[in-house]
Automatic annotation (TrEMBL):
Organism listed in the record: Streptomyces sp. R44
Protein localization: Cell membrane
Keywords: Cell membrane, Membrane, Transmembrane, Transmembrane helix
Membrane topology: Multi-pass membrane protein
Primary location class: membrane
Protein name per its UniProtKB record: ABC transporter permease
The organism's place on the tree of life at top rank: Bacteria
GO MF: transmembrane transporter activity
Family annotation (Pfam families): FtsX, MacB_PCD
Chain ranges passing through the membrane: 28-49, 282-307, 336-359, 365-388
Residue span(s) of domain MacB-like periplasmic core: 27-245
Length: 404
């Protein structure tokens, strides 16, 4: 009785390593697909985590400290007056955690009223320039950066002086490049001394395209805001925004807090989770496509190797090797190539994340599970890609192989 042939694990590894080393160039090219696929996989997940962390950081700095209060009095009572009291800024300023607060609204000018840099002449540009009434607290809450001059203060607002602050876009359109000549802008026939030019803001970007005048001056010239136009912008200390949002309507209108609607910042965890989920779904799809392309490359190269080694396979079968021994050998080779490609790809992916974070001055974030699982993904990809070539190799008949 002939004893069945056996193939020990050590012999399988030795044959697989020998098969890879016989053609090192082809082995490198075979593993290259896995390197690119796993490297893309690790880099995408790392960049997603890093970007999400950066978004969360910026969100905490700006959006998490911002509360907007809207006038909804007319929705509650069609006969109600504007909801914001005259001392709205002072009332909100007494709440703990408030840094700056102020009421603002768009001024509705009569038809034909234009903004000019001279008392006579046509309006500059074909588009109308917006005029915004704002208390000093609202301007400060926008966190502006001044190109020239200064913002108007509480005294200027209380005395209803005719001063204005221009956004840089408006200043450029009006041709006002310096404040040394004490320029003025004319809203209709009313002159306003330009106190400052805003170069940039962190909130309310519409300020850059508007002429902003004191709230009291606007009320004296054009009357109070229309129903629903007025809003209040509040900036708070970190962590106080939700509390301020709950207290603001009562502090402003204790008799009718329902006339005001405070909009707190969204939950940062929810925002971050949403952003991360969206990025993960998109980028994981791209990483999956890269892995599939890498797997197809491994399968194709391994299949070519099987055809080239038909004589070797036939000789081994003639010496007693069974089909499953051939299958195990080729699966071991493709799995080893996939694992090596996974290790190299992981290193490249991590390096990519670190380099991008350094260039962008971000903090690199990598999940441990991603780094640990990536080589395993390469191994599985290699084994799966080698299934068909290994099956083809096991089906080769010894006599047919030796005749070639």
């Amino acid at each position: 009785m002939v004893e069945p042939s056996r193939l020990a694990a050590r012999d399988v590894l030795a044959e697989a390593v020998a098969g890879m080393l016989q053609r090192p160039g082809r082995s490198v090219l075979t593993a290259l697909g896995t390197v690119l696929g796993v490297g893309t996989f690790v880099a995408i997940l790392g960049l997603t985590a890093t970007t999400s962390s950066q978004i969360d950081s910026r969100f905490n700095l700006l959006t998490a400290t911002e509360v907007t209060v809207e006038d909804v009095a007319r929705d509650q009572n069609e006969f109600a007056d504007p909801a914001f009291p005259a001392d709205a800024d002072a009332r909100i300023g007494r709440l703990g955690g408030v840094e700056d607060a102020g009421v603002y609204w768009p001024v509705r000018l009569s038809p034909g009223t234009a903004v000019r840099s001279a008392p006579v002449g046509d309006a500059t540009g074909s588009e109308r320039i917006d005029v915004v009434a704002a208390s000093p607290g609202a301007l400060r809450a926008a966190a502006p950066t001044l190109r020239q001059g200064r913002l108007y203060d509480e005294f200027t607002s209380r005395s209803a002086q005719s001063v204005a602050v221009l956004g840089k876009s408006v200043a450029d359109r009006l041709g006002i490049t310096t404040l040394e000549t004490r320029p003025a802008v004319f809203i209709g026939d009313e002159p306003f001394t330009v106190a400052g030019i805003i170069d940039d803001v962190q909130r309310r970007a519409d300020v850059l395209m508007s002429v902003t005048v004191p709230r009291t001056t606007a009320e004296k010239l054009w009357g109070p805001p229309q129903q629903g136009d007025a809003k209040m912008l509040i900036t708070t200390a970190t962590g106080a925004a939700n509390q301020i949002a709950r207290e603001a309507p009562v502090a402003l209108r204790p008799d009718h807090p329902e006339y005001l609607k405070a909009v707190p910042p969204p939950d940062p965890r929810t925002l971050r989770a949403g952003v991360t989920d969206d990025l993960d779904q998109l980028f994981l799809l791209l990483a999956g496509v890269s892995l599939v392309i890498g797997a197809v490359g491994i399968a194709n190269t391994t299949l070519v190797a099987v055809l080239e080694r038909t004589g070797e396979i036939g000789l081994r079968r003639a010496l007693g090797a069974r089909g499953r021994h051939i299958t195990v050998q080729f699966l071991t080779e493709s799995g080893a190539l996939g694992a090596m490609g996974g290790l190299v790809g992981t290193a490249l992916g991590v390096s990519t994340v670190i380099v991008v974070a350094l260039v962008r001055d971000w903090t690199p974030v990598m999940h441990t599970a991603t780094v640990v699982a990536a080589p395993a993904v390469g191994l599985v990809t290699g084994v799966v890609a080698g299934l068909y070539p290994a099956w083809r190799a096991s089906r080769i008949e010894p006599a047919e192989a030796l005749r070639r």
